Amino acid sequence: MGAGHGHGERSSLGPAPRRLRVLVGLLxxxxxxxTLVGLLALWPDGDLEISGPGVDVERGTxxxxxxxxxxQDVDVDGCELARVELLSGPGAPAEAEALLPxxxxxxEVVPGDRIIVSFxxxxxxxxxxxxQDFDRGPPLLxxxxxxxxxxxxxxxxxxxGALASLAYSLVLIAVFTLPAIMEGSPPLAVAVTxxxxxxxxxxxxxxxxxxxxxxxxxGTLVALVVIGGIGWVFxxxxxxxxxxxxxxxxxxxxxxxxxxxGLLLAGLVIGALGVLDDVTVTQTWAVWELADVDPDASARxxxxxxxxxxxSHVASTVNTLVLxxxxxxxxxxxxxxxxxxxxxxxxSQEVVAQEVVRGLVGGLGIIAAVPVTTGIAALVAGRLxxxxxxxxxxxxxxxxxxxxxxxxxxxxx
Length: 413
Hints:
Layout: E1 5-6, E2 9-10, H1 18-42, E3 58-69, E4 80-86, E5 94-99, E6 114-119, E7 129-134, H2 137-155, H3 157-182, H4 187-207, H5 211-237, H6 246-254, H7 260-293, H8 299-328, H9 330-338, H10 343-348, H11 350-396, H12 398-412
Helix pairs in contact: 1-4, 2-3, 3-4, 4-5, 4-7, 5-7, 5-11, 7-8, 7-11, 8-11
């Protein structure tokens, strides 16, 4: 394991000593083993059967051809139908009629729109299809392509690793995390296993298989432990139930085995992982650059200088994290404002309080990640810089090489 190379960028600190590589291997081996055990133990078996309202409804995509009035036997003011071309889902390819939403706040549907339709086999003939939502697949695909092109244009080879890491993370969540939680596995255990599996692959894939990535991963792991522990305490002290939105209430109705309080913790851990990745990688790379510029600096000096960067990074990142969670509850906060609720009571409402907990606990994880990551990086990078300085000094001193050569035979003798 080299000391700082990945996707075409190589650190000048040189290769890691064998003793350091062995130490890193001993640290990584238990984490890799625990992650594999967690994946095997918690992997969903796929036998879960869910029943409840809306579960049997099938969905597909369609293109609107024409808007017409409802049949005479449907006596509802403002009722409209859309003649649609079914593109996917039940009955496709074919033409059908789909009920459209009505009312002052109903979305406007016009010919040419791509929509998602629901199909209820038990409904009366002619009313089996209904408008569910707009099909946003094409614009989302275009935006995804623009995002990928932007990442590749800026990051080049590293961008390929970053996009592959993103795809891996999404696939892992889709095939492992969500089904495992739905089958009743402890959400916190599933989230921690997911986070470890993501870290072990994405950090190395995005930033290179080297000591810097390993140091960043160790710092991220410590922060995730802090987040999980503090989050577990405060979700219980705060009497959180997890039943705060329509999605959670719906899940409780069709899958009673899901631990909603644990689901809150799982979201907290996975949501903080991306921010922690940014913080720990930045701190590690900063320490490496400082050691590269000043190879004679001590580990303490590297730590002190890198922490100046870390403090600024924490200030901006924590602010970003908290504002992101505040933004998620902004519509609800407007409702509380319209009701003239005192700020303390509004914040104490569970739907707002859980976002406050997420932001503050995530911030504490970042605060823990910076000094831990910086300390580990300073120790490792300082050792590598001293080794490089010693090698360079020996190479520049021919007399030292001659003395070494003369002392060789006598040492062997």
